[in-house]
Amino acid sequence: MKITFDKGFLCGGCKRRYGESQIAYKYKESCICKRCFDNFKSYSKEAYFGVSDEVEFLVSAFHYKSIYRKIFLDFKFNGQFAYGHVLGMAMADVLKERDVFSDYQYIVTVPVSKERFAERGYNQSEVLAEYISKAIDIPINNALVRIKHSAPQSTVHTSLRAKNVKGAYLSTETFNGENIIIFDDICTTGSTVTECARTLKRAGAGKICVISGAHNVQQWIDRTIHRFI
Question: Based on CB atoms within 10 Å of each CB, which residue in 28, 56, 147, 186 is the most buried?
Fold first, then answer.
C-alpha cells in the first residue's frame, strides 16, 4: 500500500497544510498561514518601552501571546527550527518600518551558554536576528559570549532574574563608542538585556537600545509605554 502525504506548507499555528496563496510566510516546508498571522498582535511603530538606565529604549515586534507564543515555543523549546525562520521574516517586516536605528552601528544578539546550545542545536536569537539585520541594514556583531550557565529565565521568579544572569556575559571585543542594538528573542523583566548592556558598556560601547522579537508588557516591572511621534 502506497503512503501519500498532503502537499503544501505546514503552518506552525494551526498545524494544517496550505498552498502558496494561503500563506503569509514560508521556509522550506513550514509556514505561517494568513489566518494565523492575522492573530499576531504587533506593537504600534510609535511604541517604545523603558528598560533600565543602561538602555535607551526597547522596540518590540509582537505581543507574546496567542498563536505567536505557540509557534515561538515550538521553535525555542521543541526543536522546530524552521519556525524560527518564518517568525524572523514576520518580525523583519514589522521592524523595517521603524526609523530609529540610523545612529546604531551593530546588532549584538543575546548569547546562550555552550550547554544550552548543545541542547537545542542553535541560538534562537541568532536565527531571528539575521532577518532583522537584513531588514534594517545593520550588521551583526557576535561580541557577547555567555560564560555562566544558569537556569532559563522563564523558569526563574521575576524577582530573581537579575541575580540569575549577573556576571553571565563577557564581551570578546573592545568598542570605541559605537552604538549597539541588543537583540533578544523575548523580553519579560528586562534583566537579561540589562546585564548584556552593562557588559557592552564596560567594553566601550556608546548608546544601547534593544530590539525584541516579542514582549509581554504585563510582566514588566516598568510597564510604561512611551510613544514618540
Answer: 186
Single-letter code of the amino acid located at 39: N
150-199, pLDDT tens digit by residue?
Answer: 655 555 445 545 555 565 788 999 999 999 999 999 988 888 899 899 99
User: Do the beta carbons of residue 47 and residue 189 sit within 8 Å?
Assistant: no
pLDDT 10s digits, 88-122: 999 999 999 888 999 999 999 999 877 877 887 88
What pTM did the predictor assign?
A: 0.85
Give me the long-range contacts of 45-49 (CB less than 8 A, separation at least 24).
Answer: 45/94, 45/97, 45/98, 46/227, 46/228, 46/229, 47/225, 47/226, 47/227, 48/100, 48/225, 48/226, 48/227, 48/228, 49/187, 49/215, 49/217, 49/220, 49/222, 49/224, 49/225, 49/226
| Domain ranges within the chain, ordered by starting residue | 1-38, 41-227
